[in-house]
Task: structure prediction
Amino acid sequence: MKHELAKCEGPCENPGHCKWCDGGLTSCNVCHGGEASLPKDCPGSVMSERAQDAVGNGQRNFIDDKWIGSMMRKTVTPQDVIDLLNEALALDPKVMAELVGHRVTCTGRLADHETIQVNTWKQHGEPEIDGYAVGILGILNGMFGVDADGWGCISAIVNDDKSIERFELLTHRM
Result:
């Protein structure tokens, strides 16, 4: 797909010095890439800030309808996870609420893990179900450990209607 390049809204107030008319800047209205972060072809949707950075530093490019290169990280911090969760929340809040609210039955062996957070079904509000339940935040928190009270540092701020307002880092738990 070709980029839909931004143009001067004209009439140009600064002929001969317009950042758009005179070819000084290039930006795509679709993928929001610009200058160094503009991939060869347009991916057809808004690129995340991380994707723009990867294009800009030469790690990745979009060519012939596919991504080329890697965005693998060598290290991941709790804040990196929070940023990605909030990015996903902005893109699809309903799915993120369903995903974070979903629990699956797990074994007592997983429930006894030192850092993965697991509740009983009763603690999760399902008193008729025996056993343990784990969700995605319990697993993600397990990556970074727990404080003295057994809690992790990644939290979802949930509204009364069960929608997620945001994800945040609980620095007092670190």
